[in-house]
Amino acid sequence: MIKKYLAYFFVWGLLLTACNNSNKTTEEKQDSVVREPIDQPEEVQQISEVITRFVRAYISQDNEKLNALVHPELGMAIIYRPGAADTFALIDSFDFKKPVPEYYAYPPLQNDQVLTFEKLPSFDCGSMKWDKTGFYSDTTSNSQTQLLQTIVKFEEEFESSKYNEQQKKRIQELENGSYRVILAQPEESLIFHVKQFGTAWYVTLLDRAYGGCDA
Question: Structure pTM?
Fold first, then answer.
């Protein structure tokens, strides 16, 4: 009888361990999603156009041209770092005279680099340099890190929740399936995401935190 109970508890322990491991794997997968890389000439041309149009509008600080690339219903998200942790704001339209955050003006930017579709550069806070400079998009990758949803998850765990269900849905629509672009330069850089909605492409996220190592 004792052996029977011991066997029972042993099996039950194995089941609990398997469930915990499964849950952990599921949670880890939520931080990234799988998507199809862009490799068709027509798709490459479309994403290249929206990327270069956004960079030109940003360099010239032209609100009208830039807002033409912002989704009319979803707007866009801007990630920034007010302290040790990243956060973000959801905006309906972009205004160079009203930066997010307000104490961090949008700096002058120049670009003479050609857009390249390959692995993105990384910023090293030790050397305060990029591992490579240039103009890159991650369309060749089939995985995408969910920056906004990771921030939401962190803030809900350690702070009072700031996002209702409607906002969370908006965040998912802006982020899921987007492609990251980095114009990495020794001085000022530009990091943003683009995403296709139907037949149209929009800029959905501006990342003003990555590459900042103050906190």
Answer: 0.82
